[in-house]
Amino acid sequence: MSLSIFVLPVSFIAIYILFDLLIKNVDWRLNFLFSVIFANVYLVVITEILSLFEKLTQINVFILWTIPILILFVCLFLPDIRGKYQPIRISIRSWEWFEIFLLVFLVLILLIIGVTAIFAPPNTPDVLNYHMPRVMHWIQNQSVRHYPTGIEFQNSYPPGSEYQVLHLAILAGNDHFVNLASWFMLVVSAICISYLTSIFCANRRGQLLSVIFLVTLPGAILQGSSAKNDLHVAFWVLLSFTLMVKYFYSDGRPLDLVGLFTTIGLGFLTKMNTMVYLLPLVIWFSIMFIRRNGFSQAIRWGFIAIILFGVVNLGFLTRNLITYDSFIDTYQAGRLMVDRITIGGVFSNLIRNAAFHFQFPWAEIRQDLQLLIIKVHAKLSLDINDPLTTSEGYFSILGVNTHENFTGNTLHAMFLMILSGIYLNKLIGKKAPHKFWLPLIFSISGYVLFSIVMKWQIFGARYFLPVFFLALPIVAIVFSTIKSPLFGISLTVMLLFCSWPWLLAAEIRPIISQTPYSSYPSIFSEDRMFFLLGSDQRGFPGLYRLPELGEEKRCRSIGIYGGGGTTEYQIWAILGAPYEDVRLEWIVAGTPSTAYEDPDFRPCLIVCHTCPSDQTEIKGLERVVMGNTYSIYSNSLEHDP
User: Fold this and answer.
1) Is residue 97 classed exposed, middle or buried when 0-12, 13-18 and 19+ CB atoms within 10 A define those classes?
2) What order do you get walking across the sheet with 605-609 strand by strand?
3) Beta carbons of 178 and 227 less than 8 angstroms apart
4) For 173-208, how does the pLDDT look when each residue is reduced to its tens digit (9 = 90+)?
5) What is d(CA 264, CA 237) in angstroms, rounded to the nearest whole number?
6) How much is the average pLDDT of 21-41?
7) Rounded to the nearest 5°, which phi and psi values hold at 608?
8) Which of 161, 206, 303, 336 supports an S-S bond with 232, CB 3.0-4.6 Å?
9) Where are the beta strands (DSSP E) in 509-637?
10) What is the pTM of this model?
């Protein structure tokens, strides 16, 4: 591991202190959130600039991350600035004993997730397929430019979260810290919820309980130790909502608008799903802004918003335009969006998406619910697996599981429904101000809009984290009215106890082994390659022989041959690439990225993913190892002359 990795936390602390020096916000949490925004913009800008010159190397990234640290030192040497600076002071002396108890539990949960993130390799199927491989290609190419690949969305999908992973990987010189990108987003989401709920007048107890509710969400726990981007989506949506609420219902300032528009840009750079949840928020914000500030001000800030959005997304959109003749890959976008919006299709998606959170431990109840949903579809003459509204998988209600692609948030969904009922009753009874309706409106509208425009997928439960995040002020406000310390303690202990399978027994990266939820050994007892391959040497004879054959052939140029389902990162990991002197390139034909093939690339070994048994030759190289997942092709097993 390179010690260069430590420049990232130090630089972020420097950015936070600079914000504290230059922008006097009363609440340290708001400064922290603005620091997150600026740090991510800075990360995007330096990535794009270095990529233009193909200088995206460890030393250059390290040097550029030291700039905020150097600026801070210069500022602190100036007497006028140094004299005014007051370090952050977070005192818990005024806290009651049970509030400290809640805080301890909160820190414990985050620490467990963080430890899992560090010790577990990035081994989720999507991560192996395109999240991590695109990062490895970028490091190898010293640029985020497009490259030839058999998995086109490695190029076309928004790269925001992977930029964070890229910097963690390139500075560390390995993949040991890449999961911390999602873990950090979980931490900042907790801080954001605490700040947002304070605007809704929740007391400290309500704020803490809403944060504990967040970090015990099974989906959030599992995503927090992964290299996926669903927590990023939920955070950018939550932060956008927070800045909108602050602008209209707190001391709104121009800086809030700059932060808001930049946040929306960062959300778009992360995943297209973000815009589905942001659309109701943006519409509401635009109407409110025009009513408050007038149409001319709205036009002026609209231009500023476009500029800020462009600063963040220009590189990504330009590359897509050059490769695909459009800003987004229309094929991939069309594959995931509903082909034709109908009342029946919307009804079907609303029910099926809700069923993600019907993962009760009692098989009879699940079967009865599943049968009921199927019968309702049949009664209405609806195909429950209609390809017009279904992307992947066949509808079923899964049992309790700890796989991040399939787990629901059943207990929390039940709690949220009860709390929302109590909350709605209070709103109606007290004729509450407009502000207090917003969490209910936007969590529901986001869920409904997503069900309208996006196809159902068997692994779609994770897409609804923003719904839970937006609804958390409801949790805080209701819990703020309950004065009994025993209630808060009991709820926290119950949530922690019920969360142990996801905290300690995640299916593909458990801390403890021999549980009903995972057949894997503990992440502390097996090497990382075991978890990356999901098996031992007998399961991947071709891949395990690849390093040996590379040395035997003195081969440093290796081709990859496969399709869209190739779990490519397994190849990079077994070879130690791109940190070792090995070059990997795809062998492709007939795809948009074929235009980026290097005519001088001559592989001496080719790794083929799930090649048919009758494919004995690729590019003049003969098959020398036949594996059940990976096969290897070479010209001979003799040494090169």
Assistant:
1) exposed
2) 583-586, 557-561, 605-609, 630-634, 621-625, 617-618
3) yes
4) 999 999 999 999 999 999 999 999 999 999 999 999
5) 8
6) 89
7) -115, 130
8) 161
9) 557-561, 583-586, 605-609, 617-618, 621-625, 630-634
10) 0.95
